[in-house]
Amino acid sequence: MKVLVAIKRVVDYNVKVRVKADNSGVDLANVKMSMNPFCEIAVEEAVRLKELSIKEGRVATEIVVVSVGPSTAQEQLRTALALGADRAILVESAEDLTSLAVAKLLKAVVDKEQPQLVILGKQAIDSDNNQTGQMLAALSGYGQGTFASKVEVSGDTVAVTREIDGGAQTVSLKLPAIVTTDLRLNEPRYASLPNIMKAKKKPLEVLTTDALGVSTASTNKTVKVEAPAARSAGIKVKSVAELVEKLKNEAKVL
Amino acid sequence: MTILVIAEHDNTVVAPATLNTVAAAAEIGGDIHVLVAGQGAGAVAEAAAKIAGVAKVLVADNAAYAHQLPENVAPLVAALAHEGGGTGYSHILAAATSNGKNILPRVAAQLDVDQISEIISVESADTFKRPIYAGNAIATVQSNAAVKVITVRATGFDPVAAEGGSAAVEAVVAAHDAGTSSFVGEELAKSDRPELTAAKIVVSGGRGMQNGDNFKHLYALADKLGAAVGASRAAVDAGFVPNDMQVGQTGKIVAPQLYIAVGISGAIQHLAGMKDSKVIVAINKDEEAPIFQVADYGLVADLFEAVPQLQQLI
């Protein structure tokens, strides 16, 4: 089986971003960048599928990791290679692309690679769109298992248990299919030093959006980016009794 | 302009988030149609027809839509996009629920337009505000798409009245069955407590709860308050409670009258899900915890003493 994993380079989840003074966006200069947390879960899931295939004596699952982004996204691709991906593709673009544009580029990669399964994070923590996997599924005509908490491949189908508002839902999808990861799917491992060294020798192909013949034009325009209204800190109360008194008489919410 | 709102429902009742979504549609302006895609969803259609401000309800009742699988519902919505209201719909809206987030991007891609996710305000018919970077920035986004595809964050819009309308109900004869997916089963949490995103009071626990069993203290407090119980990502990550209780950037977004954060440090990603609450209370033994920076009332205390005490005093 071949699994394609799409990852995104984003601001590290511990960084509190600041809006630029000219309201054109957020300031990412000298800010720590990392692999999007949900993408780490996607890589881990692919690695587990590969380990399972080896354990069961089947042909080892091949993992191709792809990222659409600036040349610096090679760092995150190398991380994925150190975690167990076999080879990497960077679709290089310095532009700030929309989810639809990314989905179109990924569709071109899917056409080229013909994976049985594509795993993506459900949402990137920068744009917070939660769109790309669903859009890729639409463009490919594949079934989608979004917000996955469990993925089980058997034969030519995959059963995906999904996190939904009231609990969990399980769907069965025909392969090839698209899966997007949620938090509880797995706990990503850390790359070991020997694997980080080995990853430097694994193949990493760089493609351009033009080479894939995809238009990245957008129907959306970001007019401005502002800081949210600040919430000022309130007061510290000394006791539970004082808290209850304030909630009843001052805030009037009890 | 005619706007199509996709009803959030379970074939039996209309979910409250639909009312917030209709409110967003009303702010955009124009006729509002509501689509009920399901199976045996007659009661939902009747209820949708009573929602204030709705002009027409479209019912696509078919086995293919029984579980609202996106592979089947998205082609239905995309087909309606071109036909609806005579000249086609100007906007397609859905609540930013797990269902809306699952279906709508698929619709947008089929229509070849960018989606605008989780709007919190309507600036004009083509311009909207939405949070990015876990709510640490608010983007104003303008769309020139012929059909604007949008998910609506319920906490950004006060719900319209569930009663008072008398819309016409019209059947849609369509059956898109892509054949790529099938429903296997569902496990829904049974609870007598209010739904997290609709509750007036929410009590949430974090890593400080130490284990899942200790959440019983929060359930007891919540039951006395008529509150819903939530959790931080850290508590879900640690396996204390299921993911459907998660409040935060990647979980549920809540804005109750009163939010009580217990043993929650206040990571960026948690604040993104609750900082629009009217009154925030934080109980934490670490007085340096960032949650105190957004709390109206902070109590530095051991939660295992403070929570039972709070339960007694209210």
Automatic annotation (TrEMBL), chain A:
Alphabetized InterPro entries for the sequence: ET-Flavoprotein_bsu_CS, ETF_a/b_N, ETF_b, ETF_beta_N, Rossmann-like_a/b/a_fold
Gene Ontology biological process terms in this record: carboxylic acid catabolic process
Residue stretches making up the Electron transfer flavoprotein alpha/beta-subunit N-terminal domain: 23-216
Protein origin, superkingdom: Bacteria
Keywords: Electron transport, Transport
Cofactors required: AMP
Pfam families the UniProt entry points to: ETF
Gene Ontology molecular function: any one: electron transfer activity
Its biological purpose: The electron transfer flavoprotein serves as a specific electron acceptor for other dehydrogenases. It transfers the electrons to the main respiratory chain via ETF-ubiquinone oxidoreductase (ETF dehydrogenase).
UniProt family annotation: Belongs to the ETF beta-subunit/FixA family.
Complex and partners: Heterodimer of an alpha and a beta subunit.
Protein name: Electron transfer flavoprotein subunit beta
From TrEMBL, chain B:
Keyword Transport found: yes
Keywords: Electron transport, FAD, Flavoprotein, Transport
Molecular functions per Gene Ontology: electron transfer activity; flavin adenine dinucleotide binding
Any Pfam family hit: ETF
Entry note: cofactor: Binds 1 FAD per dimer.
Matching SUPFAM superfamilies: Adenine nucleotide alpha hydrolases-like, DHS-like NAD/FAD-binding domain
Extent of the signal sequence: none
Domain Electron transfer flavoprotein alpha/beta-subunit N-terminal: 3-187
Record family assignment: Belongs to the ETF alpha-subunit/FixB family.
Designated name of the protein: Electron transfer flavoprotein subunit alpha
Organism taxonomic ancestry: Bacteria, Pseudomonadati, Pseudomonadota, Gammaproteobacteria, Pseudomonadales
